[in-house]
Batch of 2 targets.
Target 1
Amino acid sequence: MTVRVRIAPSPTGDPHVGTAYIALFNYCFAKQHGGQFILRIEDTDQTRSTPESEQAILDALRWVGLDWDEGPDVGGPHGPYRQSERMEIYRQYAEQLVAQDQAFYCFMTAQELADEREAQLAAGEPPRYAGASLNLSEAEVQAKLAQGLPHVIRMKIPTEGLCVIADRLRGEVEIPWDQVDMQILLKSDGMPTYHLANVVDDHLMGITHVIRGEEWIPSAPKHQLLYQYFGWKMPELVHMPLLRNPDKSKLSKRKNPTSILFYKRFGIMPEALLNYLGRMGYSFADEREMFDLESMVESFNIERVSLGGPVFDFEKLQWLNGEWMRSVPLEKLWGSIQDWAINSEYISHVAPLVLPRVRSFSELFKAATPLFNGYPDISADSFEQGDEETLAQLQFLLWRLEAPGAWDKPRIETEIKTLAEQMQLKLRAFMPPLFIAICGSKNAVSVMDTMAVIGPDLTRNRLRHGIEVLGGVSKKATKRLEKRYQALNALDEGDTGP
Ligand code: GLU
């Protein structure tokens, strides 16, 4: 048997370090067994998927040094590798399960489902689909279909007993069937859900091992049952421990940068990032800390993955990166630094901002600091008024700039001006805290230009850093700020609305 593994990211945002982490373990497993590593894009959620996000995921994975044998850009014998191009495949499988009486048409409306849910919650029961359409007769179903009533296809799920899932790292995992909902397989618009498309594609693409994050364990019973219904052999399951923030919560961008592009922009070497991800939940028998991809493949052993939640600690990553910088030949290091930001492309953006402020080469470095450093060297005292309003201002701007869209000076300017107006602040009052958070000083190159040049990932994280330096925003305070932010924007819509 040839080992075939895959990663199946959904292109709905920035390329996440968690994707590279799972990709790395899949890659090592495949290469160690002389197998193939496949990249499949799961873009069935058409409202959230974007081609930009897909491209960024591909670029980021290549940047860290992981290459795939089959995928949307390189092709392969089992394509297409983008689920949106495989739509006609899924319906026929959903219909097959209806014909086999293992799935059924469900005609419940959104309102009926919401009412059902509310009644269950009121009765202290866990909300679930109660099975109203389960017992419709064939004639009733045909009549409803003939009327053109909107419908979905749901899979049948046993109501009692235990589902036992075999996981390579965890042994047998038991999940009571009554905790598993009658999953929608095909949505009313004819789109498959993740569960159907994932199982069908893993089968058609000959996947032998599914190595993915542990957040998918609760979905495994549905997948296992689908394999049984179709009469297909199920791939072996390996659920990896999730990456954690230092406080052990699930890795989140509020507490830790999560985008690979941030680490690239910060000046982390791809080898160091990959090395660090390799250490997440994994250790070499000889406990060495530094290793490259090749040696990880050579001595890889999936059984050595430990299940205690691995903590992704940026401080440790920076330490390791320093070790990498010192260990590679100077020529290679210089090449990496050039790729990072010492190249004519980047300098062409920096020069117009810096040149008007200097009289000699020796003044260049100080003036250009905001365009090259990671986080500015600031403390709460750096902000003239480190009060709640300053915090609110930085947080609101961060939320505005987290929305997807173009990243250029006109947009940044519009976001800043709109927010200042909403908060009834003159730009003269609005700008100083921004200068501190982004440039580290009020007396610096243009802050809006700096944000445009350093890009979205570093900008957003400098804002987060500024918020942290000012004491951070607790969960409770976030709720308060969210309300105020919504009110500001609602007001705005009212003003400019028709
Ligand atoms: N599309 C899923 C994700 O975004 C894939 C999960 C899986 O590997 O089955 O993570």
Target 2
Amino acid sequence: MIQNIVCDIIIFGGHGDLALRKLMPALYHLCRNGYIAKESRIISVSRDGYSQEEHIALTKEKLQLNLKGDCYNEEYFESFKEYLHYVQTDLKESGSYEGFAELMREYPERERINYLSTSPVLFGTICKNLHDYDLITPVSRVVLEKPIGRDLASSRVINEEVAKHFEESAIFRIDHYLGKDTVQNIMALRFSNMLFMPIWNAQYIDHIQITVAESVGLEGRWDYYNEYGAMRDMIQNHLMQLLCLVTMEPPCSLDGNSVRDEKLKVIRSLRPIEGDDLKTKTVRGQYSAGAIEKEAVPGFFEEEGGSPNSDTETFAALRVDIDNWRWHNVPIYLRTGKRMSKRYSEIVVDFKEIPHSIFPNKGSCIDSNKLVIRLQPDESISMFVMNKTPGLTDGMRLQKVKLDLKVAENAPRVPDAYEYLLLDVVRNNPTLFMRRDEVEAAWIWADTILDGWAENNIKPKPYPAGTNGPAASIAMIEKDGRSWYGE
Ligand code: BG6
């Protein structure tokens, strides 16, 4: 039975890219599917002085553009627009919140979801104003978009400012990777199949690879990206979360703290990468001009808004070790970058080789079993196993076959990550959101690498756009006698 929840969802930065491209389409689906009751309001707050009619027209235009498939429905939009409200507010100016406060006072008892889809520098100011206008009630929650800081010190400042006004249990820090269907499926796969339980450890697993490759460049965000780079933008958060889900111990339940406690233990067990390891276990890269799918694309400096002489990495590859019993001597290779040859995200669990072969070396040689969890663009889970080549052959010949554990084509529409996560905020379920200690522990680990790069003057190595990063990233894994899956 769908629970029809009445709430006010307030989007600060309501006309920003994230709000119109991701949040509104997600809310459209949730409302249309009956998860958010008709009396609820979606209140967009921004500085840019739109009338209510202009706001509705803008939302409609963006939904038509951003709703995938044929999900936009003109008739349904007539109902959806009843949810929509707009209020102009300069978020930096405390005097400017009066109109917004008045709107909120209309329903003082209602659950309030304050989604801060703004730059993190405004998080503290917005929370303070909500408090000063007496708009934080026992049923108010706040949602924070990443980045929560660019290092431990700045993330602490942000967390402190928000914590002055909201209890930790009311703070929902989004990492949209946790809302992806296949990412959630990692937990289902690991903890609902006896098959994997006894072999999910150092005795049977040789290593794990996590690749998040993007073919896009900076999409008009040069200034932001130049400040952050691949380590802060992707590894400290998205890849870290994937790593945690794949390697954590089974939580005692799916409640928020049990899952997050287990993730935190993994982060705290990561071996710091410092000293000589910075040169052998990390690779930084930066793309130069090249071509993707036969289209010429500019280099990092030539992107819109770019300027030369930046040392920001647009690619990073790391060998990570987890110092605990389960993962002793099992390296986890992480890799992410912009302007790589194609967009794909994938986790590969590579099992150890069999201890002894009874098969003559005919047909395929015996390859290790692999579990490949594909997150995007085509979601799938496959297992590679060895099998007998059918028919009369000269002796027993082997072949590698692929078992599909999940076939996305047969599934109903897969909701977008933001749909899952917004619904969880509405339902007050924090399991898929990052707790403060988790974010800060991830920064402690990432800061060691970032500081090491700076202190040792480790510069990014160039790689042409359209390739899979600098050759050094291949050398890094080959030195361990392994190779990147599929290359
Ligand atoms: C964001 C990063 O968090 O994730 C972007 O800031 C990146 O730089 C994006 O492009 C990738 O998300 P997805 O869901 O497209 O893989």
